Amino acid sequence: MENFLLFNCALDDKFLYNKFSASAAKLNYGAFVCFSGIIRKEDNINGLSFDIYEPLLKEWFNEWCKKVENMNVKLFFAHSIGDVLIGQSSYFAAIASSHRKNALELFPNFIEDFKKNAPIWKYDLINNERIYAKDRSFMLKNAGILS
């Protein structure tokens, strides 16, 4: 899937922008909006680390693609697996659309839904240890016996 990418390293935002915007141009779409999640320095972290359950993440992404299939919109998504240090990018999302209105209206919902419902587990990197970031995590629907 050319518009869904996972990397075992920090993301190269310039590469992703060029790759995804080229797809938008091939579709003759006039709008391309993107978001990059960059690891910021906070508390005592050296970075973040991510675990992903790929089948569920693909399902989440495919559900979004189905929502927009009749809107002249294409979604793009990339995320890191493993360690990403402060100042590096771990998340890149973009929406291409025939016109800006659909892209701009969908963008905040796509980003926020990812944050709350994508099956990605975040860990703080502190002194070479991975510590589950429970206070910044959300319970996933239908995940586990207690949900």
Supply database-style keywords:
147 residues; four-stranded antiparallel sheet; 31% helix; four-stranded mixed sheet
What profile does the largest beta sheet have?
Answer: 4 strands, mixed
Number of helices: 3
Shape: globular
Strand order of the largest sheet: 1-4-6-2
Give the end-to-end Cα distance, rounded to a whole number of Å. Answer: 30 Å
Beta-strand proportion? 25-35%
Rg from alpha-carbon coordinates: 16 Å
Name the helicity range: 25-40%
Task: Tell me how many strands there are.
Answer: 8
Order of SSEs: EHEEHEEEHEE
Helix/strand/pairing category: alpha+beta
Could you list the spans in which at least 5 consecutive residues all have pLDDT below 50? none
Mean pLDDT: 91
What features would you describe in this structure?
With 147 residues, this protein is α+β, with helices and mostly antiparallel strands. It is built from three helices and eight strands. The strands form two sheets. A four-stranded mixed β-sheet has the order 1-4-6-2, sandwiched between helices. It has a four-stranded antiparallel β-sheet with strand order 5-3-7-8, with no helix packed on it. It is globular and about 50 Å long. 25% of the residues are buried.
Write the layout of secondary structure elements.
Layout lengths: L3 E4 L5 H14 L4 E8 L8 E6 L1 H14 L5 E8 L1 E4 L3 E9 L2 H18 L2 E7 L2 E4 L15
